[in-house]
Amino acid sequence: MRKMCELRLSISRSEILRVKAKALRKGVWYRILTRVERACIDLVIRLVERVRSCLLGKIVSNVLKKLDEAMESRVQRLMREIGGGLALKLSQVAQDWGNKSAVQWADDSGFIRYLAVAGVNSPFGSGVG
């Protein structure tokens, strides 16, 4: 019996081209990717309109994720790595103290950005840098 593919969405050529163009503009295409990864992406662009294979989809997804992480700004990285966790903790504490509207804090991108930037700029240091 064949195992079902866990790839949720197939990846289109246009999506791969968009990420490649952005990576080339930002100068991360050659710096971040190995020769094999670049060749794989270039071959997929040339030969496939939409990736349907599970194995190829996982490979392409991993390379695209690697590029996305390399292209994100410092603030975006800090929001992902630090701000989200802090917002969740503060939200839970405020809810425990009876603030019912605090449940929304964990998903508020402005609050998450504030916490990330405030943590970096704290005179006590946040261990970030």
**What's the alpha carbon Rg, rounded to whole Å?**
20 Å
Total number of distinct structural domains: 2
| Average predicted local confidence, pLDDT | 86
Strand order of the largest sheet: 1-2
Number of strands: 2
Which consecutive residue ranges, at least 5 long each, have pLDDT under 50? none
Helix content: 55-70%
Estimated structural class: mainly alpha
Assess the beta-strand content as a share of residues. Answer: under 5%
| Oligomer category | single chain
Order of helices and strands: EHHHEHHH
Query: Helix count?
Result: 6
Distance between the termini: 50 Å
Form type = elongated
Q: Profile the largest sheet.
A: 2 strands, antiparallel
Notes on the protein architecture:
α1 (13-26) runs parallel beside α4 (54-71) and α5 packs across α6 (109-121). The chain has helices at residues 13-26, 29-32, 35-47, 54-71, 74-96, 109-121, and strands at residues 11-12, 50-51. It has two domains: 11-71, no CATH class; 75-121, no CATH class. It has six helices and two strands. The chain is mainly alpha-helical and 129 residues long. The mean pLDDT is 86. Strands 1-2 form a two-stranded antiparallel ribbon. The termini are far apart. The chain is elongated, with a radius of gyration of 20 Å.
